[in-house]
Automatic annotation (TrEMBL), chain A:
It holds the Pfam family PaaA_PaaC. Keywords: Oxidoreductase. One of its GO terms (molecular function) is phenylacetyl-CoA 1,2-epoxidase activity. Its EC number is 1.14.13.149. InterPro entries: Aromatic_CoA_ox/epox, Ferritin-like, Ferritin-like_SF, PaaA_PaaC, PaaC. This is 1,2-phenylacetyl-CoA epoxidase subunit PaaC. The lineage of its organism: Bacteria, Pseudomonadati, Pseudomonadota, Alphaproteobacteria, Rhodobacterales. It comes from Sulfitobacter porphyrae.
Automatic annotation (TrEMBL), chain B:
This is 1,2-phenylacetyl-CoA epoxidase subunit PaaD. It comes from Sulfitobacter porphyrae. Residues 9-71 form the MIP18 family-like domain. InterPro entries: Fe-S_Maturation_MIP18, FSCA_dom_sf, MIP18-like, PaaD-like, Zn_ribbon_PaaD. Signal peptide: none annotated. SUPFAM superfamilies: Fe-S cluster assembly (FSCA) domain-like. Residues 116-153 form the PaaD zinc beta ribbon domain.
Amino acid sequence: MGDNTLVLGHRISEWCGVAPVLEEDIALANTALDLIGQTQLWLGLAGEVEDKGRDADRLAFHRDVWDFRNLLLVEQPNGDFGRTMMRQFLFDGWHLAQLRGLMGSNNDQVAAIAEKSVKEVTYHLERATDTVIGLGDGTEESHKRMQAALDRLYPYVGEMFIADAVDEEMVSAGIAPDPASLRPGYEAMLDAVLAEATLQKPADDFAHKGGKSGARHTEHLGHMLTQMQWLQRAYPDATW
Amino acid sequence: MVTEKPSLETVWSWLSAVPDPEIPVISLTDLGIIRDVQWREDTLEVTVTPTYSGCPATSIINLDIETALRAKGIEKLTLKRQLSPAWTTDWLTDTGKARLEEYGIAPPRPAGGPQHCPRCKSTQVEKISQFGSTPCKAQWRCQSCLEPFDYFKCI
């Protein structure tokens, strides 16, 4: 959870100062801020559970690509504004369902972080949905770009719902929901929004995977980390 | 230096004089983020809940609480972060809501938008963006006086 919010939070912060209009610039920066705030909570908890003296900052800045456990979707480059918003929408829909599941976790801290985050993410999904509909059912150009964004990103959707050994253990311990159980609700939400946005969901449901397990990230994450981590790499343990 | 522990009521009154760093017309108690104040033996424990998880004002708020209480002579102090129950705008006091409106920020409403323009009170208002200059606000515009204004999001 923390790596997803960290990587996507950093990605959308790349728009800061260069978004198409001021309001969208502010909206993306605000969303990034929420996600980075959630990262501090999740990675802070991860560090406590691990109990090896690593805090949220250390986990964020002192790990290399193969140690990241984020979905491949969130590390994909921003592309144009439409692709950024399509990626946000595809992620937010899953994120909200996952957080609602985690609110029922039998781990109090997980449930509390989920309860806090769910309010922010409800808002993110609302905005991403409006934007996807507005641009999908917009001009010929915006429609074309949104369809291209969906075609490009849809192969990264499947990974969110495929369980690995860690997920299975989390489910049996009552800590997290079964990823596959979230898919029907997600697909229903997706179909309704895409219909309104006049966009076609790709027929092929091939899924790229390997981000969540860290086995095979796309080339983009390493490039992103060189930006995100350069200060800590150049000046280890520098503080503000 | 205090020789006796001040009462909890006194501590609450001190905290109600600490302004929010971003919106100084309302206090931290108006904002509803101080969840509890307790004496744990001779240490004062103040429980604070964050508004938004990434709000940059959070660390300033903690610093302001500490500074205010130290100025009153409290030496042993701990700040506890409480995430659950998550902060909601329902915890804004009525005084807080009225002060926001006077300041030009439309207070939160469960209906999801402002009742009227905080300047000219016209009910003809429209949303510009769901986000604004701080995580807790959105941007709206009055169609009567044409002024843009902030709306305090309802969460």
